[in-house]
Amino acid sequence: MSTADQAGRARLLRRGFLLEYLTLGWNVVGIVVLAIAAIAARSVALAGFGLDSLIEIGASIVVVWELSDTGHARRHRALRLIGIAFALLAIYLAVQSTLVLITGYRPGHSPGGIAWTALTAIVMFLLAAGKTRTGAALDNPVLRTEGHVTLVDGLLAAAVLTGLTLNATLGWWWADPLAGYLLLYYATREARTIFEDDHE
Predict the structure, then answer these.
(1) How many domains does the chain have?
(2) What's the rounded Cα separation, in Å, for the pair 21 and 127?
(3) Block means of pLDDT (10 residues each) for the chain, length 200 residues?
(4) CB-CB contact of 182 with 159 (8 Å)
(5) What is the domain-level CATH number for residue 18?
(6) What is the DSSP string of 107-135?
(7) 5-14 burial: b if 16+ Cβ within 10 Å, else e
(8) Which of 2, 70, 95, 103 to pair with 79, CA 20 to 30 A apart?
């Protein structure tokens, strides 16, 4: 590899690290914001999205380890932990969303939650695009795949935003637990994918 190629690769690696650190920072702040908003509004969707942000932090840490060449064994263990976290998130969402629908509990309005999920959707879409491009340039499937996880995180933010907005504007209280079921589907799919890949 020429000196120019090495310099280009080093620049791309720095960009990859920056994108992951930005994702980590946003989600760390997001956990606090979402916890406050979820408790105030008693929103299943906001609580679930907050837990999803915690999982996204784990996924970003995995990529930082991989970009640092820490080895397959450590990455394998980290991915299994993320799979377990997704499974626990799915259980929580299934129980809470079902209880809310059965009891007919009306979550409160959450202007803060609406504002944060709207911002999060935009930020995650931008980060996902950057990770996908950088991962392709580095020929790094891990960074590209995590870019897809970030894209899905943005889509989930949009789904939660829709549920919160419908509840606030039209009084469709059941939109909140339905958004929780969307998160449930995603969490179940991700956990299954991780454990199926683990047994291949």
Answers:
(1) 1
(2) 11
(3) 75 92 94 91 83 81 76 69 78 81 78 93 95 88 79 84 87 82 83 74
(4) yes
(5) 1.20.1510
(6) PPP-HHHHHHHHHHHHHHHHHHHHHHHHH
(7) eeeeeeebbe
(8) 95
